[in-house]
Amino acid sequence: MPETKKVKKVAKKANVRLVGAKNSMLVITLDRSNPAKLLTYATHITIGANDKKKRTRGATEKHANEAAAAAAVKKLHSSAVKLGWTVRVKSASQKPDAFDATHLPKA
Q1: What is the pLDDT of residue 24?
Q2: What Rg value do the Cα atoms of the chain yield, rounded?
Q3: Are β-strands 53-63 and 38-47 bridged in parallel, bridged antiparallel, or unpaired?
Q4: Residue 46 belongs to what domain range?
Q5: Where are the alpha helices (DSSP H) in 1-102?
Q6: Listing from the earlier edge strand, what are the strands of the sheet with 53-63?
Q7: CATH code for the domain of 55
Q8: What is the pTM for the complete model shown?
C-alpha cells in the first residue's frame, strides 16, 4: 500500500475573546474560510435587560496572507486592551462532583 501523509487541518476561524464592563464582550476573529480572502473583524456583544444578545460587527479588513492577518489581530487586541478590555480567564477550579461512579442517579 502506498504511504499517505496526514495533512494537519487548520481551523476556519480563530477567535480572541475579551471581556468588558456591564455584560459586554469583544470577539476578534480571523476568518480563513476562503483562502483567497482572509478577513479579520471584531464583534461587540452586549446582553440587554431581557437577556437578548446584541451583536455588532465592525473593524473588518481583508488581508493578502496569513502573516498580515495575524498582525492585524494582534493590533486589534492591543488596541482593545489599551481601551480597558481584559482577556477572559477561565476558572481553574472545578465544581465538586455531585455523585460518583458507584452512586449514579436514578432515571
Answers
A1: 87
A2: 20
A3: antiparallel
A4: 13-87
A5: 66-82
A6: 53-63, 38-47, 24-31, 13-19, 86-87
A7: 3.10.450.700
A8: 0.69
Flag whether 67 is in a domain. yes
Alpha-carbon distances of 9 from 13, 38, 63, 106, rounded to whole Å: 12, 17, 21, 42
Q: Is the distance from CB of 80 to CB of 28 less than 8 angstroms?
A: yes
Number of structural domains in the chain: 1
CA atoms within 13 A on the CB side of 106: 0
Q: pLDDT tens digits, the chain, 107 residues: what are they?
A: 566 777 777 778 888 888 887 778 888 999 888 877 889 999 998 887 787 888 888 888 898 888 888 899 999 999 989 988 888 776 667 778 788 788 777 76
- Does residue 82 form part of some domain? yes
